[in-house]
Specification:
Blueprint lengths: L5 E2 L4 H10 L1 H5 L1 E9 L1 H4 L2 E8 L4 E7 L6 H14 L1 H12 L1 H5 L7 E6 L4 H8 L4 E10 L3 E10 L9 H15 L3 H15 L6 E4 L4 E4 L3 E5 L7 E5 L13 E3 L11 E5 L2 H6 L1 H10 L1
Parallel strand pairs: 4-5, 5-6
Antiparallel strand pairs: 1-6, 2-3, 3-4, 6-7, 8-9, 9-10, 10-11, 11-13, 12-13
Helix pairs in contact: 8-9
Length: about 290
């Protein structure tokens, strides 16, 4: 047995290059641009620009080790981004197409800081901002392994655990209008409770077509209630699941709202209990 010793990158560019080459796999963010210039007035360069799986703009900043300025630098660029929405949408249209550009979700732009480590002051600072900020620690292990660990994840436009009670009241109000009968209202609340109860750092993103529950990446997407059932899509490989007709379905290759290849159909509170292991597996995968 040999210990694989964790290490930092030789230079910051090593981290940036690796993340940019595999951004969607690592963070669920589609890569748009590297070293993006913010013009002569701001006079800066954004390390990476991307679009996450819910359509939220994402700014990524990298530091080799600990750097007290990474959050403020990222917030500076985030403010620039909000003032240059048309420019960003033009970039999305050029790289990802017209459809992606028309679905950019400006209510929850994200700042993702990837660094060797963060101080307790950094963690406290992000909680004081009304922005969606993720602090992510990286490490190389030996020559072949690379790890990312979420140090802090704070929601801005997204709804996190602090807003669960208020969000639940809104959920019930919407469901009462959209769904006939109290059973679907209660079922939607039970699913919400189950997904938020999986662990810390769960944020929620509201889209018209679905509600996404995420850590760094989506792990569950809940579609608006139908008359007699709820549909939840999970990031679980359907080939690893014993599919049960009327309960679980492989939707890989099939068009649907939200993200994930496993569809779970929920009709009763008992179904929510049956789905708990699948919820946990998807949460762990994220």
């Amino acid at each position: 047995m040999t210990e694989v010793v964790p290490r930092l990158a030789e230079v910051e560019a090593d981290v940036q290059g690796l993340v940019e080459a595999h951004m969607e796999t690592l963070l669920g963010v589609r890569f748009l641009a590297s070293e993006y210039g913010t013009g002569p007035v701001h006079g800066g360069r954004i390390d990476s620009l991307g679009l996450d799986e819910n359509g939220s703009p994402a700014i990524l900043e990298y530091k080799r080790g600990v750097d007290a300025g990474v959050i403020n630098q990222g917030l500076f660029y985030l403010a620039w981004l909000m003032d240059h929405r048309a420019e960003f949408e033009h970039l999305v249209r050029d790289r990802l197409g017209v459809t992606a550009a028309s679905q950019v979700l400006w209510s929850s732009p994200r700042l993702i800081c990837v660094a060797g480590d963060f101080t307790r002051y950094d963690v406290h600072a992000v909680r004081e901002h009304r922005r969606s900020i993720d602090l992510v620690r990286y490490r190389f292990f030996g020559r072949d392994l690379f790890g990312l660990e979420t140090v802090a994840s704070v929601s801005g436009g997204m709804q996190g655990a602090r807003g669960v009670r208020r969000a639940r009241r809104q959920t019930v109000a919407r469901a009462a209008v959209d769904v006939e009968g109290a059973s679907m209202v209660e079922l939607a609340s039970a699913v919400d409770e189950a997904l938020f109860g999986l662990g810390d750092g769960v944020n929620r993103v509201e889209r018209k077509q679905y509600r996404a529950y995420q850590r760094l990446r989506n792990f569950a997407c809940l579609c608006p209630p139908q008359r007699s059932k709820l549909l939840v899509y999970l990031k679980v490989d359907p080939t690893d699941v014993d599919l049960v007709p009327g309960f679980t379905r492989d939707v890989s290759g099939l068009g649907h709202h939200g993200t994930g290849d496993l569809e779970v159909q929920l009709r009763t509170p008992r179904d929510v209990e049956r789905a708990q292991d699948l919820f946990r597996a998807s949460y762990a995968a994220a």
